[in-house]
Amino acid sequence: MILSREDGALRLVRQVEHGRVAGELAAAWGNEDFELGGARAAVVTAAARHDEGWRFEDARVLYAEAARRPLHFLEIGTADHVRLYRRGVEKVAALDVYAGLLVGMHWTGLYRGRWSSPGTAGRLARTEHDRRLQDEVVRDEEQRWIDARRQAWDDDEPRSVFETRLWHHFDLLQFWDLLSLYLAVSPREPGAAGPAESWGPQLRDLEHRPRTVRLPAVASRPGGERTEVTAAVTAPARVTLDPFPLAAAIRVDLEVAVLPDRGWGRDEVAERVRTTPPSVVSWELVPPAGSPR
After folding, report:
1. Gap between the terminal Cα atoms of the chain
2. Nearest CA among 15, 19, 31 for reference residue 247
3. Measuring CA to CA, which residue among 237, 141, 218 is closest to residue 178?
4. pLDDT surpasses 70 at 293
5. Does residue 124 lie in a domain region?
6. Does 230 reside within a domain?
7. Where does the chain show beta strands of DSSP type E?
8. Is the Cα torsion angle 116, 144, 223, 293 positive or negative in sign?
9. 246 has which bridge partners?
């Protein structure tokens, strides 16, 4: 569950709802400056189902005992995180081998700084035992990729072309993931303009202010030059992406459960979340003013 605080309320977005939005972003991706690079159906599946393993946990509402509220997704223990993500990867891989490969890369990337550089660690490990468990998971999952890659490499093309496209799709998945998270927690009213911040570490907080953020750099096409895209709330419920990577401006609807920000009992809050109809928050994603798109 993705939590944020705003105007005296707790706002909860289920992980699978966040994933659904990431899938919509993937489906809308691409123009003359940003190329998806093939395998669209599998890539959209990976984006939409990348947090599939959270489905059961969000349905029962994980609980933060000390805070007396639902558990924020970054507060989960490493062993539970491993268990649920393994389950999600298995489910997606059963649907599509390429999509399952991407979700496995995403999962292990969370323990390796999203595979940004050698030796980079994720932010989920709190103890040495956590780090050893993550290392073990990464080794096992990388071993699984050997057969998965062989199965997924089914076009008449060099292996290098396949591998370049695969990592391009991984980078795009990180972009869609973090943009969807931005939509899940950002206030819908614009604020004072400020310098762009690298987006991601702020997700540990529950309170958010309007901010311009830099999303993960993505290539214009597989193996192409990498570009950083910024996102900013520039008008009520409107996010400007610069440069604009989608085929056209789109509207994205997001289901949010809104609860009073107070102490809750475990069973009480689980029942409240299950029985309260979600609110629908709509965002418009647009190009910069003056852009031909």
Report:
1. 34
2. 31
3. 218
4. no
5. yes
6. yes
7. 2-6, 9-13, 63-64, 69-70, 197-198, 213-214, 218-219, 226-227, 230-235, 238-242, 250-260, 279-286
8. negative
9. 29
157: in domain: yes
pLDDT in tens, 186-217: 999 998 768 999 999 999 999 999 999 999 99
Whole-number CA gyration radius for the chain: 19
Kindly state the DSSP code that residue 119 receives in the 8-state scheme.
Answer: T
- How confident is the model over 86-98, as a mean pLDDT? 97
Q: What would the pLDDT profile of 223-268 be if each residue is shown by its tens digit?
A: 999 999 999 999 999 999 999 999 999 999 999 999 999 999 999 9
CA distance 265 to 247: 46
Task: Judge if pTM exceeds 0.85.
Answer: yes
Would you say residue 158 lies in a domain? yes
> Is residue 106 predicted with pLDDT exceeding 70?
yes
Within 8 A by CB and 6+ apart from 33, the residues are: 220, 243, 245
Q: The tokens 């003359």 sit on which residue?
A: 32
Range of the domain at 61: 2-235+269-286
Q: How many domains does the chain have?
A: 1
Which residue is associated with the tokens 């997001």? 254
